[in-house]
UniProtKB/TrEMBL annotation:
Keyword flag Transcription: no
Signal peptide (residue range): none
Keyword Metal-binding: yes
Domain (4Fe-4S ferredoxin-type): residue spans on this chain: 1-30
Keywords associated with the record: Iron, Iron-sulfur, Metal-binding, Plasmid
UniProt protein name: 4Fe-4S dicluster domain-containing protein
Organism from which the protein derives: Sinorhizobium numidicum
Record-linked Pfam families: Fer4_7
Length: 64
């Protein structure tokens, strides 16, 4: 299962894009999105999902 970004809560700070080890996050249109085909939930790389750990707004990067 991949993660997703709750667009209505996202501040568009970009922190998640640069922390994603799978390069699964990009700015499209007017919001950040996570490509579910690239998202690995950081399994085998980090204990916690990096998008969620760096996001300044709690519960914005969540399981899809």
């Amino acid at each position: 299962m991949a993660f997703k970004i709750v667009a209505s809560q996202c501040t568009q700070c970009g922190a998640c894009e640069f922390e994603c080890p799978s390069d699964a996050i990009e700015f499209k249109g007017e919001k950040y999105v996570i490509d579910p085909n690239k998202c690995t939930e950081c399994e085998g790389v980090f204990e916690l999902q990096q998008c969620a750990s760096v996001c300044p707004v709690p519960k914005t990067c969540v399981p899809a």
